[in-house]
Protein: Alkaline/neutral invertase
Organism: Theobroma cacao
Amino acid sequence: MGTSEAVLHVLSGAVPRLFSSDLCSSNLDLVFSSKYHIKSVNKKGSSYMQRFKCSRLARCQIGSYMCKPLGGGLYGNRAIGRLKLLRCKCERAESVSGVGMDEGNGAWFVDSAKKLNLNGSINSPNILEFDAVEQLKREKEGLTSNGTVGTGTSTFHKASVDSIEDEAWELLRDSMVYYCGSPIGTIAANDPTSSNVLNYDQVFIRDFIPSGIAFLLKGEYDIVRNFILHTLQLQSWEKTMDCHSPGQGLMPASFKVRTVPLDGDDSATEEVLDPDFGEAAIGRVAPVDSGLWWIILLRAYGKCSGDLSVQERVDVQTGIKMILRLCLADGFDMFPTLLVTDGSCMIDRRMGIHGHPLEIQALFYSALLCAREMLTPEDGSADLIRALNNRLVALSFHIREYYWIDMRKLNEIYRYKTEEYSYDAVNKFNIYPDQISPWLVEWMPNKGGFLIGNLQPAHMDFRFFSLGNLWAVASGLATTDQSHAILDLIEAKWADLVADMPFKICYPALEGREWQIITGSDPKNTPWSYHNGGSWPTLLWQLTVACMKMNRPEIAAKAISVAEKRISRDKWPEYYDTKKARFIGKQSHLFQTWSIAGYLVAKLLLADPNAAKILTTEEDSELVNAFSCMISANPRRKRGPKSLKQTYIV
Ligand code: GLC
């Protein structure tokens, strides 16, 4: 069915629930005052046709009307096909603190939530400074302080650290983006000296996460709530590349607030939201991580602010389900991991991570657990919840079992038999031992281990990918032992992974012929630069979350103190180059917002480790049971096809 046909279907009422009042209204309160809503309702008789006819520019509330078919209806998305940009008249700014009109439950207007700081200790003066943590660590190790850090030195240190934090807050606030007078995000980089902005003047979903967390931890909830609800509206946008549209539920990689002339009135302008789903991005890759991060942030918002009304909204619930349906859809895959193209996450260009990259799997697992916590049970979603539970169990089993590597496992792989045809093969993926990279044999510490970057038939990508490993710890995708082992490895390999600036995005870099083939000779991804072994200060926050979860704050504190030595002086670069992160990256943007926000989140969590709970997840007992059930039914025990059919309904 073509777009216009679908629109006709919608207009003729062929899609029953599309205009049902709860759905239609659910987004209206987002940016429009009740005055405007009434006005628009008054025009309703003629307005639907007019709106579709009118343009590729749609008014905000129309988009909301059209875009939320509950239960993944087919046509809503097509109907919105003509609505290219999300638009808002600036007169609507006052509605941000208005009253939810249609939800009946007060919807998301919870300024009172500001008072609901669940973490009483947030912003408390009880700051766990690096020195104190070091002291703690020494005490833990039974050592006494050698007294080299005198009072004068630590006072000076504290003052300079405070000024770095003040500067960071100021820069973060300067990067805020407003839509109709309300803050809705932060731009990727705010470098006044750069002439080559590219798309760094946009709000990236993944880049906003540390900004959002920093604001949440500071008790500033509005910007996060606005971000969540506005990006939700973009979720159902038409997104096409050369006549092809990806699945419903995709969240954009980024969006921009544009000021455009008002329809029919040359003298006036209005603001529109213009999303990019990858159709303009370099490489044209859809961002699989955006929706997953969105779910994680949504849960963090609820946990931190105490305002659960956002996640309970019908449109938000529908948004969660659309993301889940997209991720849980059946395909050709034999693995429970999510199959994606190269560059569909933080590493958004070719780096040989197509297939089942760890970063996506860790975010997927995290988002599934977060969604499970937030989904309100209703008849229509039983199947979805069952699929989600089954996937969680299968996914954690698969990653913990097949992605894990340490000395013992490496030796096991080294002795693998190959070409095993059977249900109970040990070497299920037919990995040839010769694949074990020489660097890994040297690099693997005796104590510690990590999750490999990717697993495909006859192929293990042994590179250490930081975000995937750190988020596997934060989300509990890695077991407790594995999580400690990952942190042990980080400590053991400090000189490689942290060196002069935390944290290397992956290790080691691709070089020579391998670089040529895998990156396509990408001059931006030369060895030890950018995504190919460059160091990204933003990763500090994920490192800190992982450390807090495992109650090992001293590791994060040490990394933060390394960053503090130069990050402000270097103007908050996006990334650093060279093996030891000695240079500011070749094409690195300065005043990169997520470098700034990442640092702030790390500091805030160091001050209040408990606050990391808004981001971390744990398996509950039902999942643990289902998991052990699977373990006993599965791994290297003898089994036939029958046992494989078993499903786990949690
Ligand atoms: C680069 C990064 C990507 C980030 C974007 C904006 O493209 O690879 O992860 O979102 O810059 O900062």
Confidence is low (pLDDT under 50) at residues 1-84, 90-132, 142-150.
